Amino acid sequence: LRLTGLKTKKILIESGHPSSPLRIDNGNSCQALRVPQFTKMTFFAHVKIDSRFFKMLMVPLAGFLVGTYFDRMETERQSMFRDKSALYGRELAEGEKPSWP
């Protein structure tokens, strides 16, 4: 079987066995190439591929969670001054909710 590659190099496949060498015939000489051995896809190969997506997902998620935590802490800190301004402050009646959380 002859296949034509780039730059008019011809690749000769000598046998169908995956470990047999390929030969490139460039007109002057034949050079042997090794066919890459394909192995069974393991679980760890999928983990390596998914680790990139894991980082792309976890970094924004971690930023969101840290930002939410700081926002809640700031809201808690500001609640010390709830309904105590000179302009809008007043005494709340029994059971009345504050003006903001």
Write the layout of secondary structure elements.
Blueprint (H helix, E strand, L loop, with lengths): L1 E3 L5 E4 L8 E4 L4 E4 L9 H36 L23
Antiparallel strand pairs: 1-2, 2-3, 3-4
Order of helices and strands: EEEEH
Shape, per Cα inertia axes: rod-shaped
Mean pLDDT: 69
**DSSP E strands, number:** 4
Structural class, from secondary structure content? alpha+beta
The neighbouring-strand order within the major sheet is 1-2-3-4
Oligomer designation: single chain
Uncertain residue ranges: 1-15
Number of helices: 1
Main sheet characteristics: 4 strands, antiparallel
CA gyration radius, whole angstroms: 35 Å
Could you tell me the strand content as a percent range? 5-15%
| Helical content band | 25-40%
Q: How far is it from the N-terminal to the C-terminal residue, by CA?
A: 78 Å
Pfam families: NADH_oxidored
Protein name: NADH dehydrogenase [ubiquinone] 1 beta subcomplex subunit 1-like
Task: Provide tags for this entry.
single chain, 101 residues, alpha+beta, four-stranded antiparallel beta sheet, 1 helix, 4 strands, rod-shaped, disordered N terminus, NADH dehydrogenase [ubiquinone] 1 beta subcomplex subunit 1-like, NDUB1
Folded structure, characterized:
The structure is a single chain. The protein is of the alpha+beta class. Among the domains are: 2-33, no CATH class; 43-76. Helix content is 36%, strand content 15%. It has one helix and four strands, in the order E-E-E-E-H. The chain has one helix spanning 43-78; strands at 2-4, 10-13, 22-25, 30-33. It has a four-stranded antiparallel beta sheet with strand order 1-2-3-4, with no helix packed on it. The N and C termini lie far apart (78 Å). InterPro entries: NDUB1. This is NADH dehydrogenase [ubiquinone] 1 beta subcomplex subunit 1-like.
